[in-house]
Amino acid sequence: MVRKSTVSVAALAALTGTFGSTAAYGQVEEIVVTATKRVQTTQDAPVTVTALGSAQLEDLRISNFTDYLQQLPNVTAQGRGPGQQLITVRGLGSSAFPVYLSGANGKTPNVALYLDEQPVTMPGRNLDVYATDLERIEVLPGPQGTLFGASSQAGTVRLITKKPVMNQWQAGFSATVSTTKDGEMSNKQEAYINAPVVEDKLAFRLALFNDSQGGYIDNVAGTKTLDPSVNPRFNPGRTGFQAGADLSDVEFLEASNTEYVEDDFNDALYRGLRLSGKWFITDQWDLEVVHMRQNLDADGVFDYDPAVGDLDVQRFSSDELNEKWHNTAWTLTGRLNFLEVVYTGGYLDRNVDQVVDYTGYANVGPYIPYYICDLAVTYPDAGVDPSGTCQAPNLGAQNLQDITKNTHELRFNTPDEYRLKATFGVFYDDLKLKDRGNFQYFGSQFVLDKEGRRGFAQNAPLPGATTIDPNPRDPGVAFFNDITRTEEQIAVFGEATFEVVPGLWDVTFGARWFDIDVSLVGSSNFAFGNLAGDGGDSDSGNNLDETLAGFRPAEEKDVIFKAGTTFTPTEDLLFFFTWSQGFRPGGLNRGCAPGSTTNTVPCAFETDELTNYELGWKIDLFDRNVRFNGAAFFMKWDNIQASVFAPEVVGSNLTFNDNAADAEIWGLEGDLTWAVTTGLTVSSAFTYLNTELTDLAETGSIAIAPVGSELSTAPDFQGNIRARYTWFMGDYQLHAQTQVNYSSSAFSDIVLAERRKMDDYATWNLSAGIRKDRWRAELFAQNLTDTRAELFISTQDDIPRIFTNRPRTWGLRVGYDF
Question: Can you tell me whether residue 360 is helix, strand or coil?
Fold first, then answer.
């Protein structure tokens, strides 16, 4: 392939893809990426890749997950706030999952997240990596399975950190303060230092961050009483409320949230550091080691209830998230004869402690009377109406997750100058997730036994089940999960490109063989007993060791392929066609009942598969003052995994997964960058999608939107446009920037019970700044129109709530580079 230009270190700070920067001579600069696991400029890489370079990350003040996803029009998210996001690329969204329930039996994401060379993808919650001191963010849309493996079905997002620089002392800091309309003040501090230790041999880099984000959602006063007419899942004959019963002798106690009322209660605090070292062992071998630690503390909720008010909710117990993780990764690079050798590994340890208000469950829980009602119960055939007391329905849940992930990859690259270029290797991944969920019913500290005596509910793991905590739970924990999930994967992969006509025509072939084992052990337990005459029952529940004995481990073995061709008629034109496959592994369900004629939940659900046909182009025009990159694609998605809470199917209050449908996606995406003058750059990016469900599964265990419906989080159109002008006034460099983002309407889920329409929206940001020598300062305004963007509508708390962007915010940022 023709080399378009020599890439300098300075070019790493530039951007192609969604945005561009202006070179001194008015051309659009290029950025180096490793999207093919080789070092290439974006214009040389024969794949679709969107990048945000370090300069643009700073220009756009990108800090966390929500920030950078909003800058990429082909990327959306099913979001609940900090630490609670699921990525969607090219409209390949199916169904959401309660993040505080999704660790043990949640679907594996279909978009892979990488931190440098290490995959940090895991079930349920994506890792919300704070974006400090990054070299770039790369987004590779479409299946990337041959090189990046499981979960790279819809695409791959890669966060590339800045590495130590030899023989240079560098340091800098930035500080930001901002205020949000009708919300709290926020402040942020970031700093870095690059320290050479041994000339040409050893250097270290340290990055620090502390970001305190003020709240803007109010928890307003309210009351709630259990109302049987609201809960459509009460089952006459199994609860104390039979159809047509006279409830006049039942006392329903009221829950009040007075002690939890608070303005701007959704605060978030990111704190952490990253320390990296680089050692040139010899002229041909070097070692990089990166250690990162991050704490995330968040209070309140980050989605509001429009039925209560604008940016208002009513919560009746605590909402708190504390997440701590540390990650150590290493990369050894060298040469064996003509082969480049790269061994990279990593160890991630993540701990999540989340407490959530679960009061909304009173609207849908099939066993609510068992949990919180002390009743004299008679069933319909007795002809006597119930009497007694139903406690206040202020419910709470605590989720504890301990996750470890250990990955290793050994790969080899042939030289770039060879006519046949190959990348091949082996990969290993070992994940263990310990998940404990305690669902508390605060008004239900006591039960009546069969003799009518009051006592405390004792809820212990089922006999014979593998447990994390073998002890009985505290009184009031009427249901709990104690489940361990393991995933072990080994893969062999390779990709080869042959120059059929050097500098003009290439062909590429790739494949990946994988073997994935998924295991689920433990128990889900009920402690019934508030109904007089039933008594406490600590043996009721689901013993996964026994139920899934014939399905453990769930093993997947297969091979996926990729083929493509590249045509480069001139050094400024590149066209490519790619056919590729992607996959997301299946898994196991709690709550299944092998042999049951009424419980249709499968114990195991299968891998879903994606086939992609893509025609792409990369074009530089007018002496590289204009760049237009894009792709047209068609994707076929088979056996789509979906999730649903469906007690009428499971026979219990467990969420489960199944293969629910097939779909087709047509799309067009592109980005245009124009270096108008030496100081002015205009950039625009867009994605157009046409998504459609084409077939529904015959089992019908999950009620899905009808054939012809759109997929979830798949707007027909998303786009943005940004203009940045830089000029000099004496010794001062000034800049002004404006940006507009737009998204058309979309749906939140493909599951009918959870499906909500999210309205279209547009947002507008402005900034202006000044720089002199090493100092810089900037004023900025985000969401000037104070738009309530409906980024996601969640029904996961049984009350629909809208996750939105931050209201209008003004701020000042200052910085200094030593």
Answer: helix
Angle at 663 between CA 657 and CA 666, to 5 degrees: 140
Residue 58 tokens read as 């700073």
Closest CA to 298 of 336, 365, 353, 351: 353
In a domain, residue 389? The reply is: no
Instruction: Give the pairing type, strands 809-817 and 732-743.
Output: unpaired
Convert the pLDDT of each residue in 429-462 to its tens digit. Answer: 999 999 998 888 876 555 544 444 444 455 777 7
**Rg of the chain's alpha carbons, rounded to an integer?**
28
Interatomic CA distance for residues 344 and 781, integer angstroms:
41
Q: How many whole angstroms separate alpha carbon 667 and alpha carbon 95? A: 21
Query: How far apart are the C-alpha atoms of 679 and 713, rounded to whole Å?
Result: 37
Q: How many CA atoms lie within 13 A of 39 on its CB side?
A: 10
Cβ contact 366:318 at 8 Å: no
**Phi-psi map region of 386: left, alpha, beta (phi>0 left; psi -120 to 50 alpha):** beta
Question: Measuring CA to CA, which residue among 607, 592, 600, 608 is closest to residue 700?
Answer: 600
Continuous segment of H or E residues that includes residue 102: helix 102-105
In a domain, 494, yes or no: yes
> Which pLDDT does position 192 carry in this prediction?
97
Task: State which amino acid sits at residue 409.
Answer: E
Amino acid at 192: Y
CATH of the domain at 550: 2.40.170.20
DSSP-assigned states of every residue in 283-314 = SS-EEEEEEEEEEEEEES-SEE-TTT-TTEE-
State how far the Cα of 115 lies from the Cα of 407, in Å rounded to an integer.
12
Query: Using omega within 30 degrees of 0 as the cis cutoff, is the peptide bond preceding 502 cis?
Result: no
Return the minimum-mean-pLDDT range out of 311-325, 551-565, 731-745: 551-565
| Dist. CA 702–CA 643, nearest whole Å | 8
Q: Tokens 């319909």 identify what position?
A: 380
DSSP 324-337: EEEEEEEEEEEEET
- Please count the structural domains in the chain: 1
Q: What is the mean pLDDT of residues 208-224?
A: 97
- Residue whose entry in the numeric block shows the structure tokens 């002008």: 725
Domain that residue 201 falls in: 9-222+257-357+394-817
Is 368 within the bounds of a domain? Answer: no
Half-sphere exposure of residue 778, counting CA atoms within 13 Å on the CB side? Answer: 22
Assess if residue 731 is contained within a domain.
Answer: yes
Give the tens place of pLDDT for each residue, 665-678.
Answer: 999 999 999 999 98
Alpha carbons 818 and 409: distance in angstroms, whole number: 37
CA atoms within 13 A on the CB side of 545: 11
Determine the distance from the C-alpha atom of residue 85 to the mean position of all C-alpha atoms in its chain, rounded to a whole number: 4
Structure tokens given for 196: 């050479």
Burial class of residue 271 in the structure, from the number of CB atoms within 10 Å of its CB (0-12 exposed, 13-18 middle, 19+ buried):
middle
CA 370, 373, 374, 376 torsion-angle sign: negative
Size of the chain in residues: 818
Q: Give CA–CA dist 535/531, Å, rounded.
A: 7
> Can you tell me which residue has the tokens 């493509």?
564
Q: Which three-class secondary structure state does DSSP give residue 10?
A: helix
Rounded CA separation 496/505 (Å): 14
Provide the Cα torsion 792, 793, 794, 798; round to 10°. 170
Residue ranges in 571-721 assigned as alpha helix (H): 647-650
What does the pLDDT read at residue 10?
31
Q: Which residues pair with 393 in a beta bridge?
A: none
pLDDT of 768 over the 50 cut = yes
Instruction: Tell me the β-bridge partners of 272.
Output: 209, 294
Q: Which residue has the tokens 């997750």?
A: 401
Among residues 422, 550, 554, the alpha carbon closest in space to that of 488 is found at: 554
Beta strands in 63-150 (DSSP E): 75-79, 85-89, 111-115, 118-119, 134-141
Q: How far is CA 660 from CA 670, 695, 709, in A?
A: 31, 9, 13
The single residue listed with the structure tokens 């009513």 is 314
Q: Residue 111 burial (CB < 10 Å; 0-12/13-18/19+)? A: buried
